[in-house]
Amino acid sequence: MAAEGPATRPVQVAEHPRLLKLKEMFKSKFGSIPKFYVRAPGRVNIIEFFDLPKIHENNTKNSHMSMDESSMLYIKEVFDVPLLLEVAIVLGRLRDFSTSANTIQIDQSKPRWHNYFLCGFKGIQEHFGLRDLTGMNCLVDGNIPPSSGLSSSSALVCCAGLVTLTVLGMQLSKVELAEICAKSERYIGTEGGGMDQSISFLAEEGTAKLIEFSPLRATDVKLPSGAAFVIANSCVEMNKAATSHFNIRVMECRLAAKLLARHKGLQWDQVLRLEEVQAQLGISLDEMLLVAEDILHPEPYSPEEVCRCLGISQEELRTRILSPNTQDVSAFKLYQRAKHVYSEAARVLQFKKICEDGPEDAVALLGELMNQSHRSCRDLYECSCPELDQLVDTCRRAGAQGSRLTGAGWGGCTVSLVPVDALPGFLARVHEAYYQGSGRGMAPGQHSLFATKPGGGALVFLEA
Question: Any idea where the GHMP kinase N-terminal domain is (predicted)?
Answer without folding.
Answer: 115-202
